[in-house]
């Protein structure tokens, strides 16, 4: 079998462009955030299951779990879960529009992406504002 010559140099191959070359676009960022919120919803649903199970166990354990969720770190987690839920829902609606074959021009893609981001923030704020005004509980 013939041995390759050791003195032949490797041809320089171009590197695939990555984040150093591409400027992140809003639709790229929304795609990544949609995946991250999906993972966050998985863990948040575990917490929701824990809370519902505590209600079935009894009032003492329910009060214990509710006091954890009522603490400042618990409220921050619940606020993040609310935002992740709203963002993932609106991202799903954006994908539903694309599944119908509409909204593929660049202007509409950008508008839907920004709408998802702004809409999730507004919906989260509205949910927490209504919670605070109906219960009288301050953050």
Structural notes for this entry:
The protein is mainly alpha-helical and 139 residues long. It has a single domain (26-135), classed as 3 helical TM bundles of succinate and fumarate reductases (Up-down Bundle). The chain is built from four helices and no strands. The protein has helices at residues 26-57, 59-70, 72-99, 106-135. Helix 1 runs antiparallel to helix 2 (59-70), helix 2 crosses helix 3 (72-99) and helix 3 runs antiparallel to helix 4. It is elongated and about 80 Å long.
What are the salient characteristics of this protein?
single chain, 139 residues, mainly alpha, 3 helical TM bundles of succinate and fumarate reductases, 73% helix, 0% strand, elongated
Q: How is this fold's topology laid out?
A:
Layout: H1 26-57, H2 59-70, H3 72-99, H4 106-135
Helix pairs in contact: 1-2, 1-3, 2-3, 3-4
Main beta-sheet annotation: none
Number of beta strands? 0
Instruction: Determine the CATH superfamily.
Output: Fumarate reductase/succinate dehydrogenase, transmembrane subunit
- Any idea of the CATH topology? 3 helical TM bundles of succinate and fumarate reductases
Q: How much helix, percentage-wise, in residues?
A: over 70%
**Would you tell me the structural class of the helices and strands?**
mainly alpha
Summed up, the domain count is 1
CATH class descriptor name: Mainly Alpha
Radius of gyration: 24 Å
């Amino acid at each position: 079998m013939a041995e390759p010559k050791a003195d032949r140099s490797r041809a320089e191959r171009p590197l695939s462009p990555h984040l150093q070359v591409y400027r992140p676009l809003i639709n790229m960022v929304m795609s990544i955030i949609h995946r991250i919120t999906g993972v966050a919803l998985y863990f948040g649903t575990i917490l929701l299951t824990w809370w519902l199970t505590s209600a079935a166990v009894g009032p003492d354990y329910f009060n214990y779990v509710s006091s954890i969720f009522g603490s400042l770190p618990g409220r921050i987690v619940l606020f993040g879960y609310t935002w992740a839920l709203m963002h993932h829902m609106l991202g799903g609606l954006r994908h539903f529009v694309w599944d119908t074959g509409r909204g593929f021009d660049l202007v509409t893609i950008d508008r839907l992406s920004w709408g998802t981001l702004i809409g999730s923030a507004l919906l989260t704020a509205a949910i927490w504002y209504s919670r605070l005004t109906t219960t009288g509980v301050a953050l």
